[in-house]
Queue: 2 jobs
Job 1
Amino acid sequence: APLIGVLALQGGVAEHVAALERSGARTRLVKVPEQLDGLDGLVLPGGESTTMTLGIEREGLAEPLRGFVGSGAPVLATCAGLILLDRAHLDLLPLDCVRNAFGRQVRSFEADLEISGLEGGPLRAIFIRAPQVRHADDAVTVTATVDDAVVGVRHGAVEGYAFHPELTGDDRLHAAFVARCRRA
Ligand code: GLN
C-alpha cells in the first residue's frame, strides 16, 4: 500500500487520515521535514492557513515542502492546504487564493459538484469559510466550479479543492488519490 503523509501542524488531520486508510493507504503524520522522506504522496489538510504558515516557518518546512511538491510527487490539498500552495504562500501553484471568499454570513454551505475526471456522479462538497481560486495560469486545469467560482484545480501532480472531501464519508476523491500515489 502507498505511504501517504498528512501535514499535521493544525486542522482536519484525523479526518484525512481516516479517509486515506479507508481507501487502502498507509499514513504518516508530517510535523517535521524528515517525515517527508520516502512518502508516495502528501495531503495538505484544511484548517487555518495563517496558523499553518507559522508552523511551517517554525519547523523549517517551507524548503522541504517545496522540494517534495516540486519533485512531482502526488499532492492533495484542501481548503487552507490549497491556500498554502498559492503565489502568496509557498508559490507552488501559479494561482491566487482569495480567503473566506464566499462571504462572512455564509461561513459554511454544501453543494453537489461535478468534478472533472471523477466517476460516479456529483460529489457532496462541504465549504467552510472556503477560498476561491483566481488568476490561475493557463497551465492550471479547472476541475470544479460553484456558480462561477473556481473551487477545484489540477496542475501537474497537484490537485486542490476549496472544500472538504474528508468530511462526507464519500471517499471517491481520496480513493482516486491513493490510486494515483500507488501508480507514481
Ligand atoms: N478560511 C481558512 C483560511 O483562510 C480556510 C478554511 C478551511 O480550511 N476550512 O485559512
Job 2
Amino acid sequence: MNHRMLSGITPSGSLTLGNYLGALKRFADAGHDTDGTFFVADLHALTIAHEPARLRRLTRETALLFLASGIDPDRSTAFVQSHVPEHVALAYLLECTAYVGELGRMVQFKEKGGRPRTRASLFTYPCLMAADILLYETDAVPVGGDQDQHVELARDLAVRFNRTYGETFVVPALSRPAIAARVADLADPTSKMDKSALEGASGVVRMLDSPDVVRRKVMRAVTDSDSEVSYDPHTKPGVSNLLEILASCGGVGSPAVLASRYDSYGALKQDVADAVIGALAPVQARYAALEAEPGHVDEVLAAGARRARERAAPVLDRARAAIGLSEPAS
Ligand code: AMP
Ligand code: TRP
C-alpha cells in the first residue's frame, strides 16, 4: 500500500549512527514504495538557545546527509522547513486550536522548559510540529518514542479542528518502527545515542566520523562486568547494544544468534567497528560528492521546497477558509 510518510529531523547536532539506523536508512529504504516527505526542521532548532552560524552549518549538513543516505529527491520530497512558509502560517491556526492545558502536559516541555527564560516557542512547538504533519495529509509518522505525545497531539488538533470548522485535515496515524532500533550511547548504554550530546562525546558515533574515530569509539565502548557475549538488553545493555548495531549494520542473523559466534568482547568490538565503518562508507562517499557540488544541492533543495509548497498551499488555504479568514481581492 502506498503510504504518505513524513518525518523531520531538528538540526541540533551532527547526526549520529542512531539517526542513521533509526531514521535515515529506514526513510531511504521505505522511499521506494511510499510517498515520502522528509525535511530538516530548522525552525524547531530555534526553540532553545542557539547560535546562528552553527544552525546554518548544521541545517546544510543535515540536508546533505538526507540525500547521502539515499533519500531519492525524485521520488520523495526533501526540503528545509523554513523554505516553506506554510508551516509557520498553519502553526498559528493550530495555536488557536490548542489549549494551554494540553501544551503544558507535554513531557518535553516539562523537562526542558517551564523557566522564566524558556523561549515561548518551546511551549507552542507541538503546534508547529502538528502543522508539519497536517500540511502534507500524512498518514504515517515514524518517530522515536519521545515524540509519540506530539504526534498524539497532532491527531487531537486535527480531530478538534475538523469537528469545529468542518472536515479539513487528514488525521495521521502513529507509525511504529518494525524493529525497535534504538541505538544506545557507547559510553553509557542506558541512554540513547543523542546528536545533541557534546561535540566530542566518546560514546556518540557521528555519521561523518572518520574510520579511525569510529574504531576508537567502538573499541572503548562500555561492556559489562563479566566477559560472556550474550544478548540480554536488561542485564547486559552494553554488549546487547553492540550486537544490535552489528545486526543493523548488515550482520547476518539476529543479535542473539550473532552473540553465539563470539567468545570475547575484543573480537566482537572489532567486527562491530568494521561493520559500522562499512555501513557509513558509502554514505560518506556520497556526502563528499554532494559537498563538491553545492549548486546542485541548492537546486535539489529548492525543487523540494517548491514541491512541498504546491502540496501544502491548498491545505493551508482550506484551513484558512474554514477558520473564517478571508482572502485579499486579487
Ligand atoms: P532526534 O535525533 O532525537 O531528533 O531524532 C531524529 C530521528 O532519529 C527520529 O526519527 C529518532 O527516532 C531517530 N533517532 C535519534 N536517535 C536515535 C537512536 N539513538 N537510535 C535510534 N533512532 C534514533
Ligand atoms: N520534533 C521532532 C524531533 O525533535 C522533529 C520533527 C519536527 C518532526 N517536525 C516533525 C518529526 C514532524 C516528525 C514529524 O525529533
